[in-house]
From TrEMBL:
It comes from Amylocarpus encephaloides. Residues 1149-1192 have a biased composition (Acidic residues). This is ubiquitinyl hydrolase 1. One of its GO terms (biological process) is proteolysis. Keywords: Hydrolase, Protease, Thiol protease, Ubl conjugation pathway. The keyword Ligase does not apply. It holds the Pfam family DUF3645. InterPro entries: DUF3638, DUF3645, OTU_Deubiquitinase. The keyword Glycosyltransferase does not apply. Residues 1143-1192 are annotated as: Disordered.
Length: 1192
């Protein structure tokens, strides 16, 4: 029947293949009746090669986990997988077919058609993620499905992330102390490992090094160094943007910069390493010379030179390291910026992120939180993943927003925030000054946020403006989402193959049938497979790799096209489709993800407008299902269309996500356009090309390379721009790209292997961890890894660490793995794509993290705690309200700074009641919000200060909660001679709220008209409440309270335990109203590092929002304030600046004149014609000697 059908379709090639296949040559139908039924049901004869691979899959020669290579388009998925599953699903094994997510729908349809007919086999797919309930009934249902499939000889269709998720979820429950749930899940996992028989399709994809699942847990805190951490990245990206255009002019063959419509951050493609090194050198010089506000201008020349060495050299001198350690002892935020710059520049995190492709490898998810997430392929964001490395997360989020731009809702949020700011006109002026807004929209008073048409007009002009996007990120994205969990559990591709190491029961006398076998079209990554599985190719298929490449070397597939116009500029999507039409191409295989500005449906609608003769377009929708789009807009599933078995005449578009494993019935003479991109591997390209199943005989491909890929190819082949290029050159380039990719991933491969061995050994050392608390704690200690690390821990210079692993303490199976890992590590040849050697261990670790962060991370949802209920007003507080005096030894209230010690931050800085007035109290109820475990941080559940009970006679103040204030109102109302007053207060977080600072806004009973709040009260209350603004008259009192003095470098903390006899003076004389503060406050502060404490305390109170451009922000940063500062200028005074009080750091005039021959462009001098000037790159020389002058 197959031959007859092929004759009717005039398919000569199919006829020849079927005539050669006599059938049943190397197997007996009587012994494999299921296979015979499969042949009848599917109307086909299995080929001898398929039988050999199937038998090797069922029973590997070595009896261990194995991977087989078989040529693409030879029936791995359609024939071998159903045949193997039919035999292995015998009622004793639980057969699990594990596939990539993109192939789920197609594989499910195929297995249903193959096994659901005459064989009558069932199959199930049960997703599992961190969102899945772990209640007993859910877990029991999960287990029942698997047991039913095993007993009924059915099979499970699984995704690797679902398998890893179930495993980690059980361990996570144990880590959280939920032992009933944990015990059940871990026992089920053990049962699955003992009874499963796994078949992997596309092994090289499933077991890739990047296959990793991370479960963060524990308390969630803001990133170390916030908010400067994201501000530094934004400032650095601004400098990158300024340099890109001149770099393109100076290095035209090393970098391509593509401007975006509507302005904003350009797309950039790095072609050679010389321009990468030059970009890093220019950024280091920016930091050294004070450009871009990356570092304050208080550094002297010697300090700046030490910083320059530290952020540019992998191993700076000990002299430079010592100088860095001594820098800014009272300003740790600045030192953190230096460490972050080292990580971004020396560890190449900045370059790694710039080289990743937006909307292909990272981008924004349309329905998730507004943060960058990893992408499976072009336009396919992951559903549960996120970037794990904090700086990578920040960089990708900035870049994703720069490329995507703000949407209307986000712009409205930003403008509403401007409206609530202290000076909306000034803020709006700064946000709009670089835009092309029409004049009538440049005046804030003319802007109406509720006017939809006006809002849309503003949006069209500013949506991609970097300064507007940064404003939105700094106020709405990073404060809420730039946080880290304390701990993490992780699993990788090493955990997927079943092994004796996993099945601990098998090592205690119980035999196991667990085995994993799989197959793939290439074996390029066999050296990167986990050691728990081996590549065992059949001798008869040893030619597979070379055979596939010969398909691309046949004359009909040798064609190569540059996707550029006559000027060498890359083609737009529409121009590229037009090129296809001119060359008669109807199949578009976008392996290089060159379609970025259109989604699949948009392209499917656009292509017929160019190629008018096509009857329909076939594409994959957002649900990964093939659909047919007719010219009039009607859509039907491909299987329900007349083109299901013959796509002749149709236009076919395969986006990057579907260039692997997709099987469509292409015409025998089809010609496909295959795109390329930087970093594309041979495996990925061959997989995409073999979507044309007859490529070996009648079909052909034309390779399309964008300009950056073409330049890379001629560099690798050492050819000139106009030399002839064909598929042979492309194959040589692909092999080089593949080797480079493998080299980049080897450090992470080693790290994952060691991590797997450590976890497996811990399980064997503690076999009874479910019932023995001591073993459980030891096991969890091995499983948990700290995720929260300081910038110094991440990027500081550490002593040499031996990263090889001693195999002696391990069990024999694991010891063999560690021995092999150490052997591979020693033989690793580094050509510059990865870092190797003990001198650069810290850099190497960060490179591993840089790739590790691309792994799947499923977020832990915030825990909801029960609130405390109000027990009623305390008698002691009522007594204080009536008499103005405290009751001795009362538990109803305590000193405010004593209560402050309940926060982890106060314990960190050893906050005490020394050096304070001792007259500010808080009620006990004020310290209670939610019921949290004793090991959890209380910092995220602090009340705001709104009500104050004040006693004029004793000058004692008590902060109370609204419920207590409400209960006291009837006591205080109508009092003829009041002894206490109930005062309202709101922390001044903007200048408009300063009227609350005097505590006279509203009181019950009414205060005397002449009453003024004592200076100590305003200062201490402001500290507890987290105020940002104060009047200039309070500045001196605040500095004295914090034991801060002014010197030539700014504000500096005093040693509170020593007398102040060094001649330093305070800024102003104490005002009369603050005399009480001077008398009651000693020279000793409530903490040894008050400015550092205040910086972090205000960050907590502001929930991570930026407060650096406020009076308290300046004080915390050690910046002195004057009476004429814009913070204190009244509304009637003329504005002296338009900027958001952002200081541009520059070198002093004296230092600028040190090197009169050096000319370096400044960010402020850039105009709209940047990149088109007469800048001579030869002038960009470093005139400084790389010697640290220690005499400064």
């Amino acid at each position: 029947m197959t031959i007859e059908y092929a004759l009717l379709k005039e398919s000569k090639q199919t006829c020849l293949e079927e005539q050669k296949n006599l059938g049943h040559e190397n197997w007996n139908p009587l012994e494999h009746t299921d296979w015979l039924l499969l042949e009848i049901d599917s109307n086909m004869l299995f080929r001898p090669g398929q039988i050999e691979v199937t038998l090797a899959t069922i029973k590997p020669a070595g009896g261990s986990n194995s991977v087989l290579q078989m040529n693409i388009s030879q029936g791995k998925t359609s024939c071998i997988m159903p045949m193997a599953a039919a035999v292995l699903a015998n009622g004793d094994n639980l057969v699990r077919v594990i596939i990539p997510k993109s192939l789920l729908v197609q594989t499910a349809q195929l297995l249903h058609s193959r096994l659901g007919g005459l064989l009558g086999r069932e199959f199930r797919h049960v997703p599992f993620s961190r969102k899945t309930s772990t209640q007993p009934e859910t877990i029991k249902a999960f287990f029942d499905v698997h047991k039913a499939m095993r007993s009924s000889r059915g099979l499970m269709l699984a995704l690797p992330e679902h398998l890893l998720s179930f495993k980690l979820s059980g361990l996570q429950r144990m880590s959280d102390g939920l032992m009933p749930e944990a015990s059940s899940m871990i026992r089920i996992q053990s049962w699955l490992e003992r009874h499963s028989r796994d078949i992997l399709d596309e092994v090289d994809y499933i077991l890739a090094v990047r296959t990793q699942l991370i479960y963060p847990s524990g308390s969630q805190k803001s990133m170390d160094g916030h908010p400067h951490r994201w501000e530094t990245i934004e400032a650095l990206l601004k400098q990158v943007n300024l340099h890109l255009w001149n770099l393109q002019k100076a290095y035209p063959r090393s970098i391509e910069v593509v401007p975006r419509d509507g302005g904003g951050f350009p797309l950039v493609y790095f072609l050679r390493k010389d321009v990468e090194e030059e970009l890093i050198r220019r950024l280091v010089d920016d930091v050294y010379r004070g450009r871009g506000s990356l570092l304050p201008d208080v550094c002297n020349k010697s300090d700046r030179l030490a910083v320059k060495h530290f952020i540019s050299l992998a191993k700076p001198s000990m002299q430079a390291q010592e100088r860095i350690r001594q820098l800014f002892p009272d300003k740790p935020a600045i030192k953190k910026v230096i460490f972050q710059l080292r990580g971004l520049l020396v560890h190449r995190i900045l370059l790694m992120c710039l080289k990743k492709r937006w909307s292909v490898q990272y981008g924004l998810h349309p329905t998730r939180d507004p943060i960058a997430v990893p992408f499976h392929a072009k336009g396919t964001p992951t559903e549960q993943s996120e970037w794990g490395h904090p700086d990578v997360f920040l960089l990708f989020t900035c870049l994703a927003f720069y490329y995507d731009g703000l949407n209307l809702t986000q712009l409205r949020q930003a403008l509403e925030h401007v409206l609530k700011s202290d000076d909306p006109s000034q803020v709006y002026d700064v946000l709009s000054q670089t835009s092309k807004l029409p004049d009538f929209l440049r005046d804030w008073t003319a802007v109406n946020i509720d006017d939809a048409a006006q809002l849309h007009e503003i949006w069209t002009h500013v949506r991609r403006q970097v300064i507007v996007i940064d404003y939105f990120l700094n106020n709405f994205v990073f404060p809420q989402h730039a946080k880290q969990f304390q701990l993490k559990l992780q699993a990788s591709g090493w955990d997927i193959p079943l092994s004796l190491v996993q099945c601990s029961e098998s090592l205690h006398g119980q035999p196991t049938k667990s085995l994993t076998t799989g197959f793939s079209g290439t074996n390029d990554w066999k050296r990167m497979l986990p050691l728990t599985i081996k590549q065992q190719d059949l001798p008869g298929l040893a030619h597979t790799n070379a055979e596939v490449l010969t398909y691309l070397l046949q004359p009909r597939s040798r064609r190569y096209e540059i996707a550029a116009d006559h000027r060498g500029k890359r083609l737009t999507e529409v121009e590229l489709l037009g090129r296809f039409r001119n060359k008669g191409i109807r199949v578009f295989i976008d392996a290089g993800a060159q379609i970025l500005e259109m989604d699949n449906l948009t392209l499917a609608k656009t292509w017929p407008e160019i190629h008018h003769e096509a009857p329909a377009v076939v594409y994959f929708n957002k649900s990964n299902k093939p659909f047919v789009l007719y010219p009039k807009g009607h859509q039907v599933p491909l299987l329900a269309s007349p083109y299901a078995n013959d796509l002749g005449g149709c236009l076919v578009y395969l986006d990057e996500a579907h260039t692997r494993g997709t099987d469509l019935k292409m015409p025998e003479t089809a010609i496909g356009a295959l795109t390329l991109r930087l970093g594309q591997t041979k495996d990925h390209t061959v997989q995409a090309a073999m979507r044309l199943r007859q490529l070996a005989t009648t079909q052909a491909v034309v390779l399309f390379a964008p300009p950056e890929v073409h330049q890379s190819i001629i560099d690798v082949r050492k050819k000139k721009s106009f030399d002839h290029i064909d598929s042979f050159d492309v194959i040589c380039w692909l092999l080089e790209q593949t080797c480079s990719e493998i080299e980049q991933l080897q450090p992470l491969y080693f790290l994952q292997g060691i991590d797997y061995c450590r976890r497996a050994q811990a399980a064997l050392d503690n076999p009874y961890f479910l019932v023995d608390p001591d073993q459980r704690e030891a096991y969890l200690t091995s499983l948990r890894e700290f995720e929260q690390r300081t910038l110094e821990q991440m990027y500081g210079i550490a002593s040499k660490v031996k990263h090889s692993v001693n195999p002696e303490p391990f069990f024999p199976n694991i010891a063999s793995f560690t021995k092999e890992l150490n052997r591979q590590r020693k033989s690793f040849q580094d050509t510059g794509n990865a870092v190797h050697g003990s001198a650069l261990q810290e850099v190497e670790q960060e490179r591993e993290v840089a790739f590790e962060v691309e792994s799947v991370r499923e977020m832990q949802k915030p825990i909801h705690y029960l609130p405390y209920s109000f027990p009623g007003l305390s008698r002691d507080i009522i007594s204080f309200a009536r008499t103005g005096h405290f009751t001795a030894d009362s538990s109803a209230y305590e000193e405010a700074f004593t209560a402050l010690r309940k926060t982890s931050l106060s314990r960190k800085y050893n906050v005490s009641s020394e050096g304070v007035s001792g007259k500010l109290y808080v009620s006990t109820e004020f310290t209670k919000t939610v019921k949290i475990p004793s090991d959890r941080s209380y910092d995220n559940f602090l009340r705001s200060v709104n009500w104050l009970l004040w006693s004029p006679s004793t000058e004692i103040a008590m902060i109370i909660i609204p419920e207590e204030a409400d209960a006291l109102l009837h006591t205080l109302y109508g009092t003829q001679q009041p002894l206490t007053h109930l005062l309202t207060y709101a922390s001044p977080i903007s200048r408009k709220m300063l009227h609350f600072n005097n505590l006279t806004f509203y009181s019950v009973p009414k205060l005397p008209q002449s009453w003024k709040a004592p200076g100590w009260l305003r200062v201490e209350l402001g500290i507890i409440a987290g105020r940002l603004y104060f009047q200039y008259e309070e500045y001196d009192a605040l500095c004295k309270y914090l034991c801060v003095k002014e010197n030539s470098h700014g504000l500096e903390e005093e040693n509170g335990e020593e007398d102040d006899d060094d001649g330093a003076t305070y800024v102003l004389n104490t005002s009369e109203e603050d005399e009480g503060l001077t008398q009651s406050h000693s020279a000793k502060s409530f903490t040894k590092k008050p400015l550092v404490f205040m910086q972090e305390w205000l960050a907590i109170k502001r929930k991570g929002q930026d407060f650096s451009q406020s009076p308290m922000g300046y004080v915390c940063q050690g910046k002195p304030l004057g009476e004429d500062h814009p913070f204190f200028v009244t509304a009637e005074a003329p504005r002296k600046q338009k900027a958001l009080m952002t200081t541009t750091t520059r070198l002093s005039e004296e230092e600028d004149n040190e090197d009169p021959d050096i000319e370096f462009y400044d960010a402020d001098e850039y105009g709209p014609d940047v990149g088109n000037d007469d800048f001579d790159d030869a002038d960009l020389t470093d005139g400084e000697d790389d010697v640290i002058d220690d005499s400064s």
